[in-house]
Amino acid sequence: MLKSMTGYGKSTVEVGETKVHVEIRSVNHRFLDITTKMPRSLLFLEDRLKQVVKGRISRGRVDIFVTIEGEELFEKKIDVNWEIVDQYLVRLKDIQRRYDLTGDISIDMVSKLDHVFSEKEIETDSDELKMALLEAMDDAATQLVEMRMKEGHELYEDLEKRIAKVRSWLSSLDERRPMVIEEYKERIRTRVEEYTKEQIRTDETKILQEVALLAEKGDVTEELTRLQSHFIQFEDILSIDEPVGRRLDFIVQEMHREVNTIGSKSNDGKMTEMVVNLKSEIEKVKEQVQNVE
């Protein structure tokens, strides 16, 4: 089933008075690119969260947001950097002796010095937190995939309609070809008559030769055949139950190539108009394919 690369999932799991929130967003990207924004105290679970995503999707830029609300599952601990304090005291006394200063070094003075104290978090319920976070992550990832599948279904229907429309333009081009040849023939005959002021019957063979040369120069049979083949491949790939975005993108590029060649060969106004419509519709197909996983 076709999947989109755009999706969103959100889940919250409560642990006592604490709420663990997980949000996942995904958008278009050539490869799988995962970024996380989460408290430093939870970074030890970052790789596990990424593995959950990698197990569900293969392409897209994915942003994971983890926030903790309510009572912390970590105890705070204040540490004293004794080496820094010792150095401060030694240097303060050096300054006092060097400049013959008076006064005592107070606790108030020391407490205001930089890097004397540091705050640390001590895990108290890491297993409980880990299970809560992974549960929220799994639920959010499930929602993300469901949304990508839903949008993928809508993409599938839209692409089917657009390919059908493109096929109709292709049929019109194919039907126009023999008419163009007849118009070439009539145009040449008219020009000859204008120059000679009389009907030319003995030069019918030469007229046909000229028509054949023009028809060969503007013949787009091969391009139309290849385009038809590309459309068949495109529709076949749409039904494959695996990531197909890159393959579809390649086929659309080939479609563009063939249509551009038809446009360069055509010297018929109506065919040129059809080619413009065809290119416009294929461009819309390309835009939609950019969002397919």
Automatic annotation (TrEMBL):
Q: Which organism is it from?
A: Halobacillus aidingensis
NCBIfam families in alphabetical order: YicC/YloC family endoribonuclease
Q: Name one Pfam family in it.
A: YicC-like_N
Q: Which domain of life is it from?
A: Bacteria
Print the keywords alphabetically: Endonuclease, Hydrolase, Nuclease
Any GO MF annotation of the entry:
RNA endonuclease activity
Q: What is the protein's given name? A: TIGR00255 family protein
The record, for InterPro entries, names: YicC-like_C, YicC-like_N, YicC/YloC-like
Q: Which residues form the Endoribonuclease YicC-like C-terminal domain?
A: 174-293
Residue limits of the Endoribonuclease YicC-like N-terminal domain?
Answer: 2-156
Among its keywords, does the record have Mitochondrion? no
- Record family assignment: Belongs to the YicC/YloC family.
Cofactor(s) named in the record: a divalent metal cation
